[in-house]
Amino acid sequence: MQEENSRFFYAFDLDDDGRVKNVFWVDGKGRDDYKVFGDVISFDTTYITNKYKMPFAPFIGVNNHFQSRLLGCALLANETSESFKWLMKTWLKAMGGKPPNAMITDQDRAMKVAIEEVFPNTQHRFCLWHILRKVPEKLGHVIRNNEDFMGYFDACIYKSLSIQQFEVNWAEMVEKFQLSNSEDGWIQSLYEERKHWVPVYMKDTFFGGMSTTQRSESINSFFDKYVGKKTTLKEFVEKYEVALQDREEAEMHADFNTWHKQPVLKTPSPFEKQMSMIYTHEVFKKFQVEIMGLSGCHLKKRNEDSQLTSFTIFDFGNREEFVVEWDASKEKISCICCLFEYNGYLCRHSLMALQYSGIFAVPSHYILKRWTKDIRSRHHKRKVNEDICSKKERYDRLYPKASQLLEEGSLTNESYNFACHALEEALKQCAFLNRSLKNSQENSRKSTLLDKKLLDPQDSKTKGAPKKNKERH
After folding, report:
1. Tens digits of per-residue pLDDT, 148-188?
2. CA distance 10 to 19
3. CB-based burial, 401-437: b 16+ in 10 Å, e otherwise
4. How far is CA 214 from CA 126, 130, 155, 211, 313, in A?
5. Residue 282 sits in which domain range?
6. 35, 229, 297, 406: most buried, per Cβ within 10 A?
7. pTM (predicted TM-score)
8. Judgement on whether residues 244 and 289 belong to the same structural domain of the protein
9. In total, how many domains does the chain have?
């Protein structure tokens, strides 16, 4: 695979007897994707589907269409901190030594130790879903005796808008339901590690909308179509390549729809119209939810000085009150819900404050490039004569140029006729080149096979062939 693509990276971790313990690989596309979408990573080892029962450990990112992207993966012999350290150091090397800003994993001690050592400056978050699914098991007796417990528990986790509010709510919940007497100390351990899983402690960190390792789980279910429990290591790598091609086709399809199909606007909001031209369809749908939510908000100005204006906004949909601050001199806005910091697009509360202040366009510094439709064309501006290995990469480079040609060529009859002629000639030349290359490769393959037959003394069909040729001469 590395011979086919020089940017393909792989590494083996061997035991003292030279046997494979762990194996890691990532293709060139995954390494390029990491440069654009490597800010948030989901990592999971719960998937086992090969004859050696080695956990499959994918590194998952999310692209500008909210699609999962494989940024490398491994098969591990065990889940010790040493294996995780080797894997994460190897992955970091493959990605040019640049660690992710944030990482989501399950609540695994060995994994936590490895991340703290290899990625000391990365915000590490536990998968919230993995923690919550343990609640019925660990606190079943509390739930059976108190029907309102889960309401308190959920409110404490999801409705706490500040750290101080969470601390108060948690203490009240522990006292009310006498959780401090828990025999196994699970509640106490959750509290001690609260900075790794409670949303309010991390809402100022960008997580790209990923609160759980669901990205990894969706990748796992995706691989079920290609591999099974009897799959060998060699077969797994081959099937992995096929699966990747399918995901690339899905990404190409999303790119095409984003560039050629305009999303339906649901309000007369200038914010909605502006971002419909900038965001990809999937991101725009999420932003559109905030636009629709504007009608369910009520604004009150709290105070105003020479620089800062403060608002209180009651959100009827969430039944919560949110504080928004707007600094006109710096064009800086902040909401206590921290939706922009966490998901990367402005919340309805911030949009309402901007609208009240006479601002009817999202400021450019609140438009994350990673969510825009042309992020790839901006990222991949390289020399024209650079050697490009991947079909998807070639497609990405050609696409913006083709879109510009369509735009310019449709302006006048003269430019239209010229563009049509140029396209017809270009298509003929490309088809001719592709046919020539295919014929050349086929002839080269036949020549190689012939040489092999002539030189192989064990092939009964070619035995004596050189002698006959000599006699004929």
Report:
1. 999 999 999 988 889 999 999 999 999 999 888 766 688 89
2. 16
3. eeeeeeeebeeeeeeeeebeeeeeeeeeeeeeeeeee
4. 12, 10, 22, 8, 32
5. 270-371
6. 297
7. 0.74
8. no
9. 3
